[in-house]
Fold this sequence. Notes:
Shape: globular
Radius of gyration: 27 Å
Number of helices: 22
Helix content: 40-55%
Amino acid sequence: MSPVSFPTMGSPSELRYGKDPLLDAWLLHFMSENHIEYSIDPLRNASPEQMRFMAALGPDEIYVPCSDMMLGHLLEKHQEPSLMDAYSKVWRDVLELIENHCPGEYEKMMILSLCDHKYRQAVNAPVLIPSRLLKRLTSIVLAQAGQDDPHRERKRLLNRRASQFMETQAMNVALNTCPGMAVNCATIRDMRFELDMLEISRLLCLSVWKPIWESDHFAPQPREIESELLNCGPFDVLRRALDPGRPKSMKILYMPDTAGGLLFDILVVRVLLRMGHRVILALKDGFFFDCPTVWDSDDDPVLAQALAGSRLLGDSRAGKNALLQALKETPFLVISDGSRERLNLYKTSVTFARAWKESDLVIAKGELNHRRIMLTRTKFTRDVICVHHGADGLLHVDLKPKPSGLRTFTEPEITAKAEAIIARMRAEKAAGKTIVFYSAIVGSIPHETETAIKVVTTFVKQLRARLTGTHIINPAEHFEEGMDADDLMFMWEKVQRSGLIGVWRFQSSSDIEQAFEMMGRSVPPVWTGKDATFSTGCTKEMHIALDVQRSHPEMQIIGPDPEKFFRRREYGVGKFIDAAIAAR
Length: 584
């Protein structure tokens, strides 16, 4: 058999499945070698549905966690100089880690040799993204050396130095000196916004001035601080994003860069809170050199004090309701992004993905985030602002807007839809009608959503004809393009907990059989024996129904026995297709 040749690629933008079998094979090889292929390792990677919470991907399009330039080098399958430089940087970081944090000479030599084998294998056949190689090698070092965070003490030192600078007169002058010229504003509200923006810009400038936390007793002269602040680029992008003329306050996902600078980032968050916004601060889940983790505040009193008043949401799989409720209760949330590496959406937690989806704006700090977000063809589902210190020594603030045609539903929009349904229910009940809610399979059978909608619509139509004096709610009639399972469950739970439902009917197998008979069709094998217990969404609704019945005992529940529902897990993240029944 002749060797298989690789198809010629013009640019990374051409990478998508379904164009060429050889390309598909290479993409699967590339994704699996980098351990980011969901179909091969679904427990350690975000599902396609979860990815679409964050990345605006077209049909068969893939997301790759690296810059387009790096992807181009990997596509060439040659030892490009810039690719080799990136691998060399990885090796230097790993060598420093081994040298400074391995306990004994024997262990040090063993770990070094093991990492050397892995490193040479990667360099000889370049397919690994350098950041994924770094993650692999650091995982080996941590596991073999018995370390969980070798930089814990260093991060405490960086935060302590930053805190000491914040307490100086120089910091007070830099942050609080009134602007030298009159602020151009027509109202006190405008003036307040201008002053808030001035404070944010100064804090962001200081947040990337590394000598503050990398030097002991850093004591710059006022003129030196003033010069540094002047090196900050224009903040027009951020100004437009935070425009006080917006109809509502925003939910902002904030991703900091490193310890030390984190303390200034927290002050930026405080200003955003004062402006009326709600902020989710996303930290790393474990060791990634100087990047802060959600665990750092446990043994860092400086950081713990800086985060006072915030709430750590520890659930890595928080649902939409839980996340939004936590934000309502505490406007400053701290979450883990679920990873121990550079921003890699495949490795992020469900909570992080939902935080991204529910946010109106994402602010990402640092050069690494800038490369991952700005230097790639991938579009994202939310406006992203990257703040980083450029090679020219200036602070840059860049925007990557979400696609103009992207349809998303905000919490107020979904709530408004729920309230409209509730208002109709209230009016019908006042007219003497019994409110019936019909829970049925809609997206639980793969590739059968269209059929499921016909089944439930057909059955409800004849149910309405038979049950006079009722108002029957068919959820399938309220579906809108762009709403995912999270949006629908969030909307329907508000309706279901309104206390207006008199009868809650769950789809039975006989309902399905009658519907197919009315449609003039025999029951397909994939539908045989199915009922609401097959649906994870209906299972969640049964939990809600039983909870509502406790406070409204007059409500009747009709359908399969509730016990039969509770064999299923949580519904799939962002899916209409259910999570599978757990193996016993």
